[in-house]
Each structure stands twice: as C-alpha cells, then as structure tokens.
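Q: Hi! First time asking for a complex rather than a single chain. Here are the components, and I think there are two in total. Is that enough to go on?
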Amino acid sequence: MLFKNTYNEFVKILAKPRSYLGIGALTLLILVILFAMKADGKSFISFVTASFEQTLSFNGNILNGNLIAFIILQMLIVHIPLLVSLVTGDLISGEAAMGTIRMLATKPISRSQIVLSKFIAGAVYTLILTIWLGFLALVVGKWLFGSGDLIVLNSDGLVILKEQDILWRYGCSFAVAYLALLTISTLSICLSVFAENSIGPIVTTMAIIILFTIIGSLDVSVFDSIKPFLFTTHMASWRSFFEDPVPWSTIRNSVVILLAHNVLLVGIALYKFNKKDITS
Amino acid sequence: MNETQIIKVQHLAKNFGSFQAVKDVSFTVNKGDVFGFLGPNGAGKSTTIRCMLSLIQANHGNIELFGKDLRKHRNEILARVGSIIEKPDFYRYLSAEKNLEIFARISGKDVSKKEIAGMLDFVGLNGRNKDKVSGFSHGMKQRLGIAQTLLHQPDLIVLDEPTTGLDPQGIVEIRNLILRLKTEQNKTVILSSHQLSEIELISNRMVIINKGQSIIEGDVKELLNAQEMVVQLEVSDLEQSMLVLTTSFPKAIGKKINERILEVQLEKQQVPSLNRLLIEAGVDIHSMEPKRKLEDFFMKIIQS
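A: Yes, that's all I need. Here is the structure of the assembled complex.
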C-alpha cells in the first residue's frame, strides 16, 4: 500500500503546475547566471583575484565550468529551499485545503503510510531538483566554459584544486547539499501536517530558515550553544569538500545533525498526523 | 453481534475541547438497510459519521462494523466501506478517470481501467472521463463521488448529506442512484440528512439525533405512520368543536391554535368519526390537515 500511495503522490506532483514552477525557476536562474558569466565573467573574476595579483600570477582558463558550477551552487543554495518548500509544503496541507485528505483517510491505508508516502515523494522531488541543478551547473557549465583547475576562495585563503581532483568533490558536495535540501523538504512536510492551507507551511519554512540563519550569523555568545545544532549551520557543508585537506570530521558531524533533523521531523509528523482529527 | 448487523454504535461521545459535539449516540444498521441518519444541522451527524470512518477519534463509546472493532481492524473494515463525507472533493487538476485511478489504487482491491470506465458510465459521466474535475459542476462531482465510493465494490456505503447544494434535478438523480444501489446491488447504505422528506423517500430504517444524542430509532414507515396522529382543523365554531371532541373522544387531546384552528391528537381511525360528528353538530370544516406525530416532533426539534 505504501508503494501504491507513493506512486499516487508522483502522479499528483507531476500533474501540479507548481512542480514545474520550481524546476522552471531554477533553470531560469541558472541560465541567467550562465549568461552573465559568459557576457562579463572575466571582469567578475578579475574583481575577485585583484587582491592576489601582486603576489600570484593566474594563467590558463580560470573562468571554467568547474568554477561556474561552484558559483552557481553558492548563489542558489539560499534560494532553492523556497523552490523545494513550494512543492513539499503543499503535500499534506494542500490535501486538507482541497478536502481530499478526507477521502484519503477513509481508505484502507494507515495514516503513517499516507505521511510516509508524502515524505518519499518529497525526497524524490528534491533529488530531481538537485540532479537538475547539478546537470545545469556542472554539465552545461563545462559545455559552455570548458574545464580546468578550480580556484576557490575560502576563509583560509585561496585553494587551487587540480582538474582531475574535482569531480568526486562535486559528487560528494551535491550529496550533502541534497541532504540539506531534504531537511528543508522534511521540515515543510512536517509543518504541512499542522496546517490547513498551502501558504502557511511554505512561509513558515522560509521564516524558520531566515531566523536560524540570522541566529547562526550573530556573533553573540548566548547563541553559541545552539548554533551547532541548527540545520542552517550545516546547509553550506557541501563547501567543505572544496577545502584541502577535506575536513571529514566536520562533514560527518554535519551529516549526523542533518540526518537527526530528518528523523525527528518525520517522527513529529507521524505522531501528529496519527493523532489528528480530520475535520476539514 | 447479530450476523445481519452491519454497524453497531454504542454510547458514542466526542468532545472538541470544551464543546461536546456528540454526547450519547447509539444505533444499529442491518444488512441491506438504507438507513436514514436524521437530525438538524449541528446535531452531531457528521461527527458521528467521521468517527465511524476513523477520521475522528471518539472519546467514549464503541463502534463495530461487520462485527469487528473499528480501532482494532481499521484497514480491514475500511476496505469494505465506500463513503462521501459532506461533499466529494477531488484533485481538480486531474481528470475524472485519473482521480478514480488514484482512489482505486488504495482501495484495497484491484480495479481495472475497464471497471473505472464502467463506473463512470453507471453514474452518468460517460464521455467526461478525460475532463479535468475543475470543470465539473457540483452535481457532476457528487456523481463522481458516488463512483468513487462504489469502485471497490464495498458492502457498506456511507453518504453524508449527498444532496446538499444540488438543484432539484440533481437531487432526484442522486436519490434514484441510491435506490438503484439498494435494488440492483443490494448494498447497505447510510444516508445522513436534515430533511425528513428525503429520508422518508429513500430509507427503510432511521435514527433521529439531536444535540449529540440519539432520540429515536426504528422502521421509517412505522415511525411515520403511527396510529396516533395530529390533525389541524379550520372550523367555523371553535367552542362547539371542542365540546364535540371532549364529549365524543375523551382520550383525544384538543388544543386551540387560534380563533379558527383547532389541533387534535387522536387515533387514526377516529378521524372520520370526528369529521362526521362535527358536521352533524353544525360546524363547518374549512380545512383538515393531518400532521404526523414524528414530523411534528422533528419540526419542533429543528425550530428549537
């Protein structure tokens, strides 16, 4: 029954215009970045490398597909949660608003299975979005700008990664970025259980992300103890794969925190939905 | 539980915070019944039905369907039930056929595309299979709702206010559809309504609930055609009429409604005699309107 209802969820997601809105918006955003980089990428790069030019000499194709993919990931990781929650935040509350949740809950399928199918469908949608992001950023980026070594500027300075040492890093960073986006998907589905309309969970998800991001960026000691446990602190962990050496323990910690959030949020959603009186 | 009893609800109660939506509802539904669930708006009908379908968890009481406890055998029971609660809601962005496919997939039985097409034909939606539900009228959605309830060949069909919002033609169509379910498919149907006339036309048994309590349960014909009845008479001489009534029918109860109208409660077979005696006493009868006791009782409930 879980498999059958998950299939139903895919049918619904595929038929909803908002599902394509997210993918369309993502495509448009990436195309705009690619166009901007193609048109004026050299001045953008020289602005970044200007401070190093007195001590370093840059040769070769710096503005390559690997750097473009990195820039795109960095720029969009803030916006993609909105596109994810646009679809996942509607998965349960949208049914409540339409009244179809009544129809579902009177069928011989357990409430836990109804919720789990939503989580699975949300996870697959998020995966498709992440793969599409990776395809546009890396594959199209390389096609347009060619390949080359990757120069990354981080807090410790400039890191130069060899061309043949990059692909696995992207693979891992997309996996961790997916886990972060999955947490957003899980959060919005969990909030969706509590709501009777689609807008509430989407807005609340974004509000939580903004609030946690602000808390994470405030240099105030009172928040120091909670910062490591906020999922927003770990949303940019994908960047760690572009450090040399790779800080594996930091990444492992981030993965554990993000997984724990997912387990906790699924648990809350299951508990609440099983106890809920469906009066809509 | 008796083998013919499909539903047995005992002392059901449900609170929403401090509001007691259902206080004490008990009734039984037998196999093959078209069971009327009658009560004014806000009586607790929908809450009771939602409890029976496990949409809402009751605070007290027992619900048994097909001889099994709903809490322990939820999925097994729901596989044998088809329902529409208040109004059928569908995925507006999907076609009628796709909607039925979605609900069929989780109905607990394998339903083929041919069966779905047949069901759409049965409810009169043939040719609209591929149309999106967003373009359907309320009546069409209601018929699609009935198709959805019948897809998996349930033994019990629960219809909560199925004619609400329909035009007269739509009401007749739904009514005929329910009667076909009874006569052609021998289904057990629970039909909730706030209209006595609707229950009278379709149901063979019923329960009346009011303010969260079941008031009376029984055979519709017996309840509506009780031997004791109420007659309203518009007469030329009220005092003379009262005199005839008290002297000839000492057990009858007479009540003056106004200067010309007398309401009399007496046995059904005494009505012709009363009519004759009043005429013999020189009283002109301008109108005589029989009122059934249950109808009067139900009207009083609604008016209160």
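A: The two ends of chain B are 36 Å apart (CA to CA). Let me know if you'd like any chain examined more closely.
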